[in-house]
Hints:
Helices cover 44% and strands 17% of the residues. By secondary structure, the chain is an alpha/beta fold. The protein has a domain at 82-105 and 220-403: Rossmann fold. Helix 3 (51-63) crosses helix 4, helix 5 (107-121) packs parallel to helix 6 (138-147) and helix 11 packs parallel to helix 13. The longest helix has 19 residues, at 218-236. The radius of gyration is 20 Å and the shape is globular. The model has no long low-confidence stretch (mean pLDDT 93).
Amino acid sequence: xxxxxxxxxxxxxxxxxxxxxxxxxxxxxxxxxxxxxxxxxxxxxxxxxxxxxxxxxxxxxxxxxxxxxxxxxxxxxxxxxxxxxxxxxxxxxxxxxxxxxxxxxxxxxxxxxxxxxxxxxxxxxxxxxxxxxxxxxxxxxxxxxxxxxxxxxxxxxxxxxxxxxxxxxxxxxxxxxxxxxxxxxxxxxxxxxxxxxxxxxxxxxxxxxxxxxxxxxxxxxxxxxxxxxxxxxxxxxxxxxxxxxxxxxxxxxxxxxxxxxxxxxxxxxxxxxxxxxxxxxxxxxxxxxxxxxxxxxxxxxxxxxxxxxxxxxxxxxxxxxxxxxxxxxxxxxxxxxxxxxxxxxxxxxxxxxxxxxxxxxxxxxxxxxxxxxxxxxxxxxxxxxxxxxxxxxxxxxxxxxxxxxxxxxxxxxxxxxxxxxxxxxxxxxxxxxx
Length: 434
């Protein structure tokens, strides 16, 4: 497998290089030089395969000879050891539950796969691998649990003060061992900017072996395609041959993975990018002008991103043709009041308790159905367990949330985090102290 930078298609690297370097020096993002299509026989019979089998097939086609088949299967079996069920709410509307992994968020798919791939490529006696992560909520917890105890790795997670939920923060700050948390007095965009400055710092790169576990890392994107194919397989068993996906979108890695799956041959009629008031992409799709802005805090904190990194990957998939993209991707944005209404409506209509991100995806799918009548299965993605956002729920819904076992144990652990202002010299000094 060869990959190029979105800023320079002529500079190609192999998969292992892209995994460890995360972001090319020209500050683009790595993308496959060639997006292969799955054979039609596999797509036609995908309903006969398990999630593990689908994941292996997709990864094998994408990665080619980067990892031998036996080793790749072992990585998948270890990383993707939980389900992603499609739950029917009625005959036309479904929810894809992606919160059944250890951190209770969809990012377990990417973080666990990536950590195993990095461990596979690490050689004995090599310089320790320093993983830098900015999180707006769920990425940090998934990365922390994905890398916890992985030999020869050290993880540093930056998160915005007061802008993640209590459970999300506990998942970041109670691990110990090789996991370090920094509470930044700023926004997610500030955290992301600090991480990007570190990657561009020649002095730091000479001293440390830096890599990212954010969705800018290509090894996060690849396993997220698995659950799109698996969702289609589940729907096909129910006689549904076409699908519309509504995707909660913040940094746009999730929907980028869906679009990559589409390019590989997944039969999708439409993608819906569902956002909160951080609506950079909806505004672009409406006006044709891509203009970032500072992120605004909302109830759907994992989507509080004003400058989504992965949108360059999406444009690259469509050769920067905005008109071609707009034929396949529709977008809607919702404020906090509408988000609460969506959460209440999901419970009133279906007795389904959803996190705010999931509610936004539901509202977007509902809006799309009202705007354009369709006969396909409508699937909105549930990206996190409702228990991670207890303060957002009205009292009558909050008391109905059932906490998984791993949540109760978090409160008994010691919380450790370094407090820091938005100041790159301070962050660099912190890293140099290792």
